[in-house]
UniProtKB/TrEMBL annotation:
SUPFAM superfamilies: Homeodomain-like, Tetracyclin repressor-like, C-terminal domain. Residues 34-53 bind DNA. It comes from Bifidobacterium psychraerophilum. Residues 11-71 form the HTH tetR-type domain. This is TetR family transcriptional regulator. GO terms for molecular function: DNA binding. The lineage of its organism: Bacteria, Bacillati, Actinomycetota, Actinomycetes, Bifidobacteriales. Keywords: DNA-binding, Transcription, Transcription regulation.
Length: 181
């Protein structure tokens, strides 16, 4: 008789925990994120946390890595859909003016804060920036791609936090100055 095969009764549990961690980070910040809160949001027993992750640092790293990967995928899809330089410029504009969710904005800034202090998170942000630049380099030279990437990030910060953020005309002017249109 063959030995019984171990089966995972809940194969999506680890992914739900990671997504729940992103939700908790967005609502409570990293400082307010705990195993107990994440387990409650994920709808899993608290013991699942230690079964799937070696600690909060591993969970946070997985969550931020997933977030950066998803964000890079979305940006890459936007840039891949551009077939001309004009469409690429429109895609850059869209990536700035599209309303980002408050949750995504908070998660982004929480990641930036961690990356400023911890090399492991800096690697996540560096990978994200490298992917963004590679997406931009489909249409622009490397230096212009680097400048556009910085412009996108900077203007998104201003659009989220400034009482009078740059309007579309100013954004178009900023992009034009960088690409020398």
């Amino acid at each position: 008789m063959d030995a019984p095969v171990a089966r995972n009764a809940d194969p999506g549990r680890r992914d739900r925990i990671i997504d729940a961690a992103l939700h908790v980070i967005a609502t409570q910040g990293v400082a307010g994120t705990s195993h107990r809160k994440v387990a409650a949001v994920a709808g899993v027993p608290l013991g699942s946390m230690t079964y799937h992750f070696n600690g909060m640092k591993e969970l946070l790293h997985e969550a931020f890595s997933r977030f950066a990967e998803r964000s890079a995928d979305q940006f890459d899809a936007r840039m891949r859909s551009a077939h001309t330089r004009s469409e690429a410029l429109d895609a850059v504009m869209e990536s700035i003016v599209v309303e980002h969710s408050q949750a995504d904005t908070v998660v982004t800034y929480e990641l930036y804060t961690l990356a400023a202090r911890d090399h492991a998170y800096r690697q996540v942000t560096e990978g994200w920036m490298a992917r963004s630049r590679a997406s931009l380099e489909r249409h622009f030279d490397p230096r212009t791609a680097r400048l556009l990437d910085a412009l996108i990030e900077g203007l998104n910060i201003h659009r989220a936090l400034d009482r009078e953020p740059a309007g579309e005309d100013d954004i178009i002017e900023a992009i034009a100055r960088i690409v020398r249109v």
